[in-house]
Structures are given as C-alpha cells and as structure tokens.
Amino acid sequence: xxxxxxxxxxxxxxxxxxxxxxxxxxxxxxxxxxxxxxxxxxxxxxxxxxxxxxxxxxxxxxxxxxxxxxxxxxxxxxxxxxxxxxxxxxxxxxxxxxxxxxxxxxxxxxxxxxxxxxxxxxxxxxxxxxxxxxxxxxxxxxxxxxxxxxxxxxxxxxxxxxxxxxxxxxxxxxxxxxxxxxxxxxxxxxxxxxxxxxxxxxxxxxxxxxxxxxxxxxxxxxxxxxxxxxxxxxxxxxxxxxxxxxxxxxxxxxxxxxxxxxxxxxxxxxxxxxxxxxx
Length: 279
Description:
By secondary structure, this protein is mostly beta strands. It has one helix at 4-25, and strands spanning 29-41, 53-67, 71-86, 92-106, 113-122, 127-129, 136-139, 145-157, 161-173, 192-209, 212-223, 231-241, 246-256, 265-277. The protein has a twelve-stranded antiparallel beta barrel with strand order 1-2-3-4-5-8-9-10-11-12-13-14. Strands 6-7 form a two-stranded antiparallel sheet.
C-alpha cells in the first residue's frame, strides 16, 4: 500500500506536466481527471448489531490527443483502485485495473480511416483470491499483462462514437502468476501466450442531460484457431454530476475470457465521490 500512493502521485504529476507542456507548445489536446470515493459505517453500543466498515476508491482518467488534417494520435489511460475493510477483517482490494490504449490513424478520403494501435489490460497492484483460506495472491503489476497490437480500419464520429476492426497480434505475458498462460496438459510451465486473430474495439460517450453521461468500451478478440470463442470486455460508466466537484458514479463491467474461467465475470459498483479535472 505504501508503494501504491507514491505511484499514483508520480503518475498524475508526470501526465499533468507533460500535458501542460504539450498544450502550450503544440496542438496536443490533454484531458485529465481524478476522483476519490469514500464510504464509512460506524457503530457504538448499537443493540441491533453490525460491524464498522470503511471503503475507498481512486479513479484516474487521462487522454492525450494530437491531430492534424491528415493524422490523429490518441492516447488514453484509465486506472481504478479501491479497498474495503469490514470490522477487524482483512483489508481487501475491491478495484484493481489499469487500461491503456494508443492508436495512430491516417485519414482517408472516404468514411473509414486506417489505424495502427496497441492495447494493454493489466492491474495496478497485487490482487488476491479472498475465497481461499488463507487468501492467495493471483496477480501483480503487469503480471500478467494482456497486450494486443492491431492494424485495420476505423470509423469515428466526432468524439461521440468510434469503432475499429483489424488484425490483432495478442500476447499474455506472466511472471510469478501464470494461471492464465500455463497449459495444464503439458509438463512445462508456460508464462506467455502468442496468438493472431481479429480485434474489435468500440467506444461511445453519450450525454443524456446536462449532468448525466454514459461512457462505454467494448473489446472483442478471437484468435484464428478458435474463431468460435471470443474474449470480451465491456466497461460501462454512468456519471451523474451533483455539482461542480461531487459526482455519483455507477460502473458495470462484463468479462468473458476462457483463459481465466469458463464463466462470465461481472463487476458493478455505485459510489458518490469527489471529482476534479486537472486539465
């Protein structure tokens, strides 16, 4: 935990300074925002019972875009981290995601443009399986790391909707936590997966009202040797602005990845927290 907070502060400072320099010296368009949510329940001589509870979450969203009449380079990063403690129990990780996407697109004379990009999905800190006794660590920063490079065609409508489809080169790289990469049918331990296939990423941002917006991100990937099975990650964030610095946020994430589990994974959360736009 002591290592995580300095990492957050260093990351925010680096992105903010870089974006400010880029904004002043070139045509870069930075957009950086952070939010912090806190939940607490406390009891004292409460006859009906209950346990004290404290939970918190941190969110970082950064975008850096460079655009000319012929090219566009888009960089986006999202970090979610949170913890929760009930009574004297274990202080548990509840959110632990790091997503990064960088895409370079070349504009054409028709409605589709050409693109090349890279997509990273990993975690920001150690994660644990709390159903096991005692708890078991299952991942760490960049261990494993899910990386996809792709080239193809993209359709974009302003900053509202974007959809890309192309050939993907997919790798999963692991170190100490190789459950996702290891093939149990072999005698050796595999710590990497390399495959080629088709990747699709669609993002959209809709403003339903002046103070209500929805952001969605859908990624699909299937390797050529298993086109009947697709990896799916669908992120949804609904934000309601209470005032200039206070937001209510609902998140809903669906993941299907047979390399992790044959079951569909679902995570949802609702929080009220402080939000601040750095740029």
